[in-house]
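Weekly modeling sync, notes
Attendees: S.R. (lead), two postdocs, one rotation student

Agenda item 3: backlog of single-chain predictions. S.R. asked that every request posted to the team notebook include the full sequence so nobody has to chase files. The rotation student volunteered to paste the first one in as an example of the format we agreed on. Action items at the bottom.

Example entry:
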Amino acid sequence: MPHSGNYWGGALLSAGSNSSSGPTAIQPVPGKTVSGQSKGHLNLRKSKTIKGTVSSRKGRKTHQQAPQNQVQAGAQATWTSISHRTALPPAMDDEPLPGTVETLSQRTLVSGVQLSVLKADITSVEADCYVNPTSSSVAFAGQVGNRMLAVGGALLHGTIAGELYQHMVIPPCGAVTSPAAGLLAQHIIHCNSPSWTETDSIQKLQQTVTNCLDEVTRLKLTSVAMPSIGSGGNRFPKHTAAQTILRGISTYYKNKPPTDFHVKRIIFVLYDKQSVNVFRTELARLIE
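Predicted structure, as returned to the notebook:
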């Protein structure tokens, strides 16, 4: 799939490609810093340390609980930071409350990339970028996208409200990058993932994962937070989606020398028990 790229709202936009190569002359522009933002950090430990971060946003009225220094895998910790709003954005069904981060499993691939399974609200996790499964347009239509937009608010909406957004088309399996204004991440990778009923849907989902990772490589990011791509509105069976995503990530980095990528951590951020259990099982079963 040919690669094309341009700037939009201060960030690189590129349709996904079948290889990790891309125009080297284009450099990413960091996302904007949101004023009035404070952060709380919590170490969630199994064999290594995972960092979860919750920050206040303008208008939120919450109370802060001091984080514990260490929490064993499977334990739950909740803390939020103080600001001025009286209502929180709506949570998704079966989703942990904002500020709740629970780590269930982690594994380091032979490439050195660490994969972690968290039960959390994705907007409460600190990472260089979030992955937003969408369709052929840059939109926040699914559960994950709705959550990002609810938290990012006008700042996030403003980054995609221009003329370029109105006319942009993400090719099948493609991925484009936009700023993550109003969120803890710097970037959002929007991907046009296939539906389960399409021909060669499994191969297309793996290609979608590859194109997302191409964006991660191009932007020299070190951490990524993503949901279970395809298993929501696109109706992939949860086990099939997890197997395909994990296999795609393992294959991508196994075939690259360590000097060709910067990512250290990929976080699967899930909000329902079934998805969490599926990813824990398939991560343990993954054969490299």
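Discussion: group reviewed the output briefly. Confidence is low (pLDDT under 50) at residues 1-93.
Action items: rotation student to repeat for the remaining queue; S.R. to check formatting next week.
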